[in-house]
TrEMBL record:
UniProt keyword Transferase, yes or no: yes
GO annotation terms (biological process): purine ribonucleoside salvage
InterPro entries documented for this protein: Nucleoside_phosphorylase_d, Nucleoside_phosphorylase_sf, Pur_Nuc_Pase_Ino/Guo-sp, Purine_phosphorylase
Classification via NCBIfam families: PNPH, PNPH-PUNA-XAPA, PRK08202.1
Stated role: Catalyzes the phosphorolytic breakdown of the N-glycosidic bond in the beta-(deoxy)ribonucleoside molecules, with the formation of the corresponding free purine bases and pentose-1-phosphate. Preferentially acts on 6-oxopurine nucleosides including inosine and guanosine. The purine nucleoside phosphorylases catalyze the phosphorolytic breakdown of the N-glycosidic bond in the beta-(deoxy)ribonucleoside molecules, with the formation of the corresponding free purine bases and pentose-1-phosphate.
SUPFAM superfamilies listed in its UniProt record: Purine and uridine phosphorylases
Binding positions (phosphate): S44, H75, R95, V96, H97, A127, S231
GO CC term (a single one): cytoplasm
Species this chain originates from: Alosa alosa
Family label: Belongs to the PNP/MTAP phosphorylase family.
Protein name, per record: Purine nucleoside phosphorylase
Reactions catalysed: inosine + phosphate = alpha-D-ribose 1-phosphate + hypoxanthine; 2'-deoxyguanosine + phosphate = 2-deoxy-alpha-D-ribose 1-phosphate + guanine; 2'-deoxyinosine + phosphate = 2-deoxy-alpha-D-ribose 1-phosphate + hypoxanthine; guanosine + phosphate = alpha-D-ribose 1-phosphate + guanine
Length: 268
């Protein structure tokens, strides 16, 4: 069989085998007493989510065997173990993306490490562009569903041989984002007085690194996307595959231009 240039063939399918994951998990477990039940992936510029962690122990990604290293600004590249309100947590201060040149297997490697460490719930955050006309910059969108655009083109973290120790071959994705967690998040934000800027919607992943053309943005909108970004979907897909409960939170950091007329500099 000719394999050159095809990432997903049997011979060249996985840079992150179960054994690789086990090695990294054991490395971490032997260096920390923390046993987190909740993992949080901090999106671009959102590393401050880990600021209030108590009893902190941190590891630089570059020191952790097999771990991918963040290369973009706004992604510090450290794992932070500790407690938030007495809950044992681990925060990824910074993630890696497909456009950095990592395979999606590598992008999602940390999710499997969390699973093997005993994590049960994962909160995946991101910075994204608002496509829904009602959205304002600064709104927070709870992700109720996603569109995996790179997945349609074969860029999918679960392509390649399936290891049943992680999950089944054909995982269901219709309930990837826990309804209960979304309900809880809405109720907590209402208690905090945040209801005015809480939204719920569909996140679409594009590969990046360029932002969308106006025609592309219109297409994504017509397809039912409320926000667009270059992450999250692979992590949540792998989380669902291995049985983690997931909450997805998107901070709307910009409004995506859907028409050619306004402020028209440089536009077609
Ligand atoms: O999704 P996160 O990591 O928050 O980052 C978002 O912000 C970057 C673009 O500014 C892209 O990487 C996009 O995906």
């Amino acid at each position: 069989m000719h394999t050159e240039g095809n990432m997903h063939t049997k011979e060249n399918s996985c840079c992150c085998s179960f054994e690789d994951c086990k090695l990294t998990t054991d490395w971490l477990l032997s260096r920390t007493r923390h046993r987190p039940k909740i993992a949080v992936v901090c999106g671009s510029g959102l590393g401050l989510l880990a600021d209030d962690v108590t009893n902190k122990q941190t590891f630089s990604y570059e020191d952790i065997p097999n771990f991918p290293v963040s290369t973009v600004p706004g992604h510090e590249g450290r794992l932070v173990f500790g407690h938030v309100n007495d809950k044992a947590c681990v925060f990824m201060q910074g993630r890696v993306h497909l456009y950095e040149g990592y395979s999606l297997c590598k992008v999602t490697f940390p999710v499997r490490i969390f699973k093997l460490m005993g994590v049960e719930t994962i909160i995946v955050t991101n910075a994204s562009g608002g496509l829904c006309e009602d959205f304002k910059v600064g709104d927070i969108m709870l992700i109720k569903d996603h569109i995996n655009l790179p997945g349609f083109a074969g860029q999918h973290p679960l392509c390649g041989p399936n290891d049943e120790r992680f999950g089944i071959r054909f995982p269901c994705m219709s309930d990837a984002y826990s309804k209960d967690l979304r309900k809880l998040a809405m109720s907590v934000s209402s208690d905090l007085g945040y209801s005015n800027f809480m939204r719920e919607g569909v996140y679409c992943m594009v590969s990046g690194p360029n932002f969308e053309t106006i025609a592309e943005a219109r297409m994504l909108h017509v397809l039912g996307s409320d926000s667009v970004g270059m992450s999250t979907v692979p992590e949540v897909t792998v989380a669902k595959h291995c049985g983690l409960r997931a909450l997805g939170i998107s901070l709307i950091t910009n409004k995506v231009s859907l028409d050619y007329s306004p402020r028209g500099e440089g536009q077609p």
